[in-house]
Design brief:
The chain has 126 residues and is an alpha+beta fold. It contains 1 helix and 7 strands; from the N terminus they run H-E-E-E-E-E-E-E. A 3-stranded antiparallel β-sheet has the order 4-5-6, with no helix packed on it. A two-stranded antiparallel ribbon has the order 1-7. Keywords: Signal.
């Protein structure tokens, strides 16, 4: 079964805020987590997370960023929050591997539940 990409949901929420006269956050399509930046806050309290297969963990929300580690399907993950990639297309979740204690970004389609549902604050704007 396919899923609805989060950027559409976030964009729809931003449009609703603007229509209601509220101050909207920066456009999600212009935000990402740049390579090498410190880890985002741990805002996601959900559990039961793992990769579908071995997946590279990266130092930013892009395949352009260096690899910080590898997570295997047998290892548990602690989600922090999610961000877009530098192109504003795919969503990525910041995780900490519970067994190895290594943190990094994994693209959401590689995760068993499509990643965190919590937006990372203070992303880098293009």
């Amino acid at each position: 079964m396919g899923r609805i990409r989060r950027p559409l949901t976030v964009a729809a929420a931003s449009i609703a805020l603007v229509a209601a006269g509220a101050i909207a956050a920066p456009s999600p399509a212009s935000a990402h987590w740049s390579c090498g930046r410190a880890a985002p806050p741990d805002l996601d309290t959900s559990g039961g997370h793992h990769t579908l297969e071995a997946a590279n963990m990266r130092v930013g929300s892009s395949t352009r960023c260096a690899i910080s580690g590898i997570s295997y399907a047998s290892q548990s993950l602690d989600y922090h929050c999610y961000a877009l990639d530098i192109n504003g297309v795919d969503t990525w979740t910041y995780v900490v591997n519970v067994q190895t204690k290594v943190g990094g970004w994994i693209r959401d389609d590689l995760l068993n539940d499509y990643g965190s549902g919590v937006w990372c604050p203070n992303q880098t704007n293009l």
